[in-house]
Task: structure prediction
Amino acid sequence: MNVINIFLGFAVLLTGRKLFWLFIAALGFLAGASLGPRFIEADPAWLIWVFSLGLGFVGALLAVFLKRLAVSLAGFVGGWYLMMTLATTFDWQLGNTAWVLYLIGGLIVSGVVSGLYDWALIFLSSIVGALAIVQGLDLSLSPVLVSLLLLALIVAGVSAQNRAWRAEHPARPDPEKPKTPPPPKKKTA
Result:
């Protein structure tokens, strides 16, 4: 599962906004891989794979056919996954109230994603991709080093996706800004 996390993480980190359906499918798969062991008896273990692939497939279908709903749902699942991964990575002792933190994270990120579509996709896919990579690497580092690695990956993902987005959408002239007249022609004698 670690190699798949790393592969999906890099794919989402670098192309999450452009390949939106892949981002949603990867998010569904990663959520299924994280939630599957909690809800499904892992005997046989391939049931978790089927569950994860099923969630990824449903996510891809939602992304293709119901884009706005998929964006809100991706925001919710991404926020949930973010809080769950942070709680696990930093060993927060939340007990039975952990789901409240996950729910709040999901609702906040869902609202942000719905309001700031392109930028939210860039940031959320960079965060989810970075988390998947770090989780797949399964490093035994201090929380400070893990945080620095996450931050570096997120910045790299946002930067790469922003460059790609800017290349697709070159700056348009501001319609409110008055055009400056050309300089006067010099008279020749």
About this structure: The longest helix spans residues 143-168. The radius of gyration is 21 Å.
